[in-house]
Specification:
about 120 residues; mainly alpha; about 40% helix; two-stranded antiparallel ribbon; His-Me finger endonuclease fold
Length: about 120
């Protein structure tokens, strides 16, 4: 619950969050609409075909996982059904998942040598 007075209007944080949400929605709509014009409405992994009735289940995947990298030629996009898209992102979280080499999590362990330091004392 907010401590601000509701009569004073939205806080600066509320305005920033609302703007970020609007900007993301516009960005998402922009590159999705472009990708749907460039590519056939077929999942790039399972080859499921889509129509206007189920098009909401077809998503745009960023090949390099950078949602701000949206070249007009669509070279960083591929259309994936929601199931294949979820699977693709699960692979980047779980490096043991089958498939191409994926991003690996952090390799630094903040307290990795703590036991050794305590033994020295």
């Amino acid at each position: 619950m907010s401590n601000r007075d509701p009569k004073s209007g939205p806080s600066n944080l509320d305005r920033v969050v609302a703007k970020a949400q609007r900007d993301r929605l516009l960005r998402d709509q922009g590159y999705r609409e472009q990708a749907l014009k460039i590519y056939p409405w077929i999942c790039g992994r399972c080859a499921r075909e889509f129509t206007r009735e189920n098009l909401r289940e077809l998503t745009v995947h960023h090949r390099d996982h950078d949602h701000d990298n949206n070249p007009a030629d669509g070279s960083n996009w591929e259309l994936l059904c929601i199931y294949c898209h979820d699977n693709e992102h699960a692979r980047s979280v779980d490096p043991s998942a089958p498939g191409e080499a994926r991003q690996v999590g952090a390799t630094f362990t903040a307290f990795g040598d703590l036991a050794e330091l305590l033994r020295r004392k």
